[in-house]
Amino acid sequence: MISKTQYFIIFSFAIIFGITGGFLDLPFGVVVTGIAAAVILIAMIPYVYFLYYATNTSKIEQFLSARKRQPILGFYWALGQGTPDLAEDQLEKVLRKYRSPSHQAIFILADASQRGDVRSASSHLHQVKQTHIREYYEVHVMLEEGRFEEAKERADTLQKDWMNESILGRLYSLSGDAEASRNHYIRAAQCCKGVQRYLLEGMY
């Protein structure tokens, strides 16, 4: 989905680049390639920004909601809504479209994590290729098995700060300390940007 502003930028760039190409006597193929590359770049900028760099979670939610027909974006939007049935429906759409076991494992575990039941999806852990992501979900399983001290020690070794903080948030939630849990989830959200921040803010 391209916004009106993006259409205007693309149209303006195409005209300017076309005129410039004419003045400089650039080959037609070069002009067309340049315009095509610009269109792709301009269309992708919002995706890259909101998925990885934005910090305003209301804007991130709006971006995802406007594109929820796209399976992955719809799945992330649904996870942030905190409605299990909605997330389950979106997850099924993702799994139908993306057949790679390693890709499916990431989405299945993300859904299980938001529900606080990673153990139910632990059979997919070995399919996760990224070591730091697999270790993060392994620590979640430890928490759900009541191995709090072991999980806390492993959390300190996780690659990203938000992972450590979110594990502590979950640990204190399971321990019944709501205030400490909220504080750790807040810190976890502050450690990251984009969709991950949006999902973590939904945890408190």
Automatic annotation (TrEMBL):
The chain crosses the membrane at residues 7-24, 30-52. It comes from the Bacteria. Keywords: Membrane, Transmembrane, Transmembrane helix. Gene3D superfamilies: Tetratricopeptide repeat domain (1.25.40.10). InterPro entries: TPR-like_helical_dom_sf. This is Tetratricopeptide repeat protein. The lineage of its organism: Bacteria, Bacillati, Bacillota, Bacilli, Bacillales.
